[in-house]
Write a structure and sequence with these properties.
three-stranded antiparallel beta sheet; alpha+beta
């Protein structure tokens, strides 16, 4: 338990470092002035070209994936699917639980570290 707590604390420290870097950029080279408005650089609507794309990102709980299909005619994707980490991590549960006692199921489920809100999608 102490190892997992230590990992979470290290993740918090790393997140704070990333936020400090972002704040340095926002207060430095991307600072809003009368001559420079950062929101003016970003387009109001993005119309993607007709394509299918899968983007994945590493997450503390595993791989998080996003699938988009655009038709090129609208700024709203034709299809958008999210592949959540907890759902994939939970799929190994039947293999982990073969031949174990019922009392051990709680410890096994806790070690997977799932978020039930992601599982019911």
């Amino acid at each position: 338990m102490l190892d997992r707590t230590w990992v979470r604390v290290r993740e918090i420290h790393e997140s704070l470092n990333l936020m400090r870097q972002c704040l340095d950029k926002l207060e430095g080279e991307h600072k809003r002035t009368r001559e420079f408005d950062p929101q003016a650089v970003i387009p109001k609507k993005i119309r993607p070209q007709a394509q299918e794309i899968y983007v994945r990102a590493e997450n503390p709980k595993g791989e998080l994936g996003f699938y988009f299909r655009a038709d090129g005619k609208s700024d709203i994707p034709f299809r958008c699917k999210v592949r959540a980490c907890s759902f994939v991590n939970l799929s190994i549960l039947p293999d982990l639980c073969k031949g174990v006692l019922i009392a051990d199921l709680i410890a096994i489920l806790g070690s997977i570290d799932i978020v039930l809100g992601e599982v019911d999608r």
